[in-house]
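Q: I have two molecules that I believe assemble together. Could you output structure tokens for the complex as a whole instead of separate predictions?
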Amino acid sequence: MTDYIKIELLRMLRNKRYVIFVVAFPVAFYLVFSGIYGGEVAAGGLSGKAYFMVSMSAYGALAASLMSTAVPWAQERGSGWLRQLQITPLAGWKIITTKLVASMLLVLPAVLLVCAAAVLVQGVSLPPGRWLGLLAAMWLGVAPFAALGLTIGSLLPPDTAQPVSMIGMFGLALLGGLWIPLEVMPEGLRSVARVLPSADYAGMGRGIVAGDGLPAGDALAVVVWAAVLGVIAVLAYRRATARA
Amino acid sequence: MNAIAFADVSRRYGDVLAVDGLDLTVEAGRTVALLGPNGAGKSTSINMLLGLLRPTRGRIEVFGHSPDEAVARGEVGAMLQSGELIPELTVRELVAFVRRLYPSPLGLDEVLEMADLTALAGRRAVKLSGGQAQRVRFALAVVGAPRLLVLDEPTAAMDVESRLRFWEAMRSYAEGGRTVLFATHYLQEADENSDRVIVVAGGRVVADGTAAEIKAGAGGHTVRFTLGGQAAAGLEALPGVSAVEISAGTATLRTADPDATVAALYRGTTLEIRDLRIDGADLEDAFLSLVQESR
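A: Yes, here they are, computed for all two components at once.
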């Protein structure tokens, strides 16, 4: 299975769309936002440059997990690659497990690059424990989005999976407060943000960066979302790969 | 030991019976062609053989196991009718990946050589032509050294020269006791590359034997002549005749005994016979007559 994970990583790193959306965009946006708002102090006492570091890491991770799952998986189902794998000794459960693991590994470049830009360009500095905590939270906390992407890829054909995953990505990013801080959103939108996993996901990162530790409410919400979407993803995967 | 055994296998899609009580066995070590027109049930049968589809009724065994078990044990390799590759990966990466999924595969370089891919090994799949991609799919099918190789219309995207090379590669793989089952609607391919031809039509086996046996069994010869406006009644009762076709004023009689048929045509009828021609049937005639009979 490590071979399989390896080729999944390799193919995405060679995919231009992945590299642009997932690796280049978050870093570029971070530099723009932190350049404008970097000196301000955001809610919770975080500096603007640290606040947007978490936001753009979260956005990059969200984009990476959806982009590396939904459309590639929908394409593989439609194009016959899945069938090619199904007639080899590779067990079915390994396919979805590999997709999940690979997708979670593929969020790391975005998170690491945004953090690197924050350190190198904006001079953000944190105690080592907080860096590790942030990376761990950003990495593991992406599970609900990877599950969502796999669900989309299992249920929809590629040409529908494409717009749906895009809408999902921008919707979760925008309404979850990754682009516009929750604090400046109108009340109506803020109540939407409260139920979205992306708001909790970024909330975990902000809590850690601010030195408040892992916010229990946000973490619990992400775990519940991961469990619910994970079950849905497995059911959708079974449906998609059932041998009729 | 049988490599493949279908026992009374049927597959229904809604109201359509794609495979209708198929019974067949293939001994290990044979190269068998599954020959039939489009819609005969070839692909459905192959997908059931590979465990990708479940039979509505009946039982399939591959080397004495269920298709799923045989696939899990790495005993089966297949080239399906359609199947894209992962565009961002190179030929070598794809073949090496699939190779490692099997317990005792062939050597990577050996397979690339066999499939004529050595020069393309570093090329990404997105840049391959249709015929080149087809060769990669052949390499993916054989790289695990499966005892049973299944090919569903493998030469569909190939030009004439690629076809010749493809069948050469297939034959070299089959040497050494491996079993090959391939589906085709090209009669010539079945004739030239198999030692047994199973003709299917309407989801059933309509003939089974060597290409030579099938030619003989389906009325080995044709007798043709210009009938013009004369009545055709009684032609099917002539000795040796198995089928009569009349089209555009020409009568075509399929016969196992052309001498007797022609003698009776002159002596036993009052027809005016012009432009008489006798031909040995080729596999195509045999095939068409079998498929027509089954309708």
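A: One point stands out. The first helix of chain A runs from residue 2 to 13.
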